[in-house]
Amino acid sequence: MKLNIQLLIVGLCLFVQQINSQNKKWTSGRADGHAPIGVMGDHVHHKGGLMVSYRFMNMEMSGNLSGDTSISSENIIEEGYMVAPKEMTMNMHMLGLMYAPSDKITLYAMGNILQSEMGLKTKMKEFDTESQGFGDLKIGALYQLFNMDRETLHLNLGVSFPTGSLTETGVTPMSEPNETRLGYAMQLGSGTYDVNLGATYLKQYNTMSYGFQTSYLCRIGENLEGYSFGDKWNTTFWTAYSFSKSTSASVRLNYDYIQSLDGADASFMNPMMATVFDTSNSGRQQLDISVGGNFAFFKETLKGLRLAGEFGIPLYQFVEGIQMDSQFNFTLGLQYSLGRH
Fold first, then answer.
1. What is the distance between the alpha carbons of residues 290 and 310, in angstroms, rounded to a whole number?
2. DSSP conformational letter for 304
3. Residue 130, beta-bridge partner list
4. Which residues neighbour 150 within 8 Å (Cβ) at sequence distance 6 or greater?
């Protein structure tokens, strides 16, 4: 009888433990509670939660592709273009704000400053162009569908406002001493109101976690210059390992499918002037792999602060027409949270 009672007590304890494990929620209170820093809109906050963030993003491009094959500047000029791009650096400084008016809804806003430099080549000489300024402003909301059994799912609805310039100019050998309109990639915004729809799924274990996010960016209408950038579909998957509550490392795959530009900027009267003026050279598919790390503080003065970084390289690229070859990208970030998150 005594043995049966002991077995019953042990069974009840195991049953309660199992229920508690199943009811345990996904939490951001550990290093891998946030996705790799290159993922946006990855988590929601508890009611009253507030987070400010800063990201520095860099992308480096060098050389050119035709489809998925390298093509030299000399061959581009032989095909009839007067100018071929050689290399490009894009830097972005992004400020973000998230606030949760309820446990279900988290609001966000993101603004950025862009800095782009492009080196180009004619048959006779090389030259550089650059642009800098505010990009488009993005606002939106995340809506959590559920959070249980250490997994969560939320939806993302965002809108981008055309605050970035579409009329950036620079001096080229063909225009000097005057300035002329720079190519599409050197402009600072889309010029259209863009809608972003997405979903994010997260799952945690004792020391590991993984996440999946997919989103679609839809361009609405055309901008004042007579064109619109292509719609963009993105999907990304990552897994992370927590060495401790404060430190984690991650590996992520990211796939972008970008449709071709629709319409054309009337300023580019002769698209054969350069590949960057020709709309047939737009639209691409790209698969990247990235490694990253998160470091979070949960005690004392620095409580709520996170430091993160991520570095990625392309595994596969296919471009429509002739476009620049991506080499690598990296993101460094700071995030500071107030309240429960």
1. 6
2. T
3. 117
4. 24, 25, 26, 203, 204, 205
The token pair that represents 186 in the structure block: 């050197």
DSSP-based helix, strand, coil % in the chain, nearest 5: 15, 55, 30
Is residue 29 pLDDT above 90, yes or no? no
Contacts with 101 (C-beta within 8 Å, 6 or more apart), sequence order: 47, 107
**Closest alpha carbon to 129 in 93, 183, 203, 75:** 183
What pLDDT digit, counting tens, does each position of 117-168 carry?
A: 999 999 889 999 999 999 999 999 999 999 999 999 999 999 999 999 999 9
pLDDT digits (tens, 9 = 90+) for 79-101: 999 999 999 999 999 999 999 99
Contact assessment for residue 179 and residue 168, using Cβ atoms and an 8 Å cutoff:
no
Give first-to-last CA distance, the chain, whole Å.
Answer: 49
24-28, 53-57, 212-216: least confidently modelled range = 24-28
Pairing of strands 305-319, 169-171: unpaired
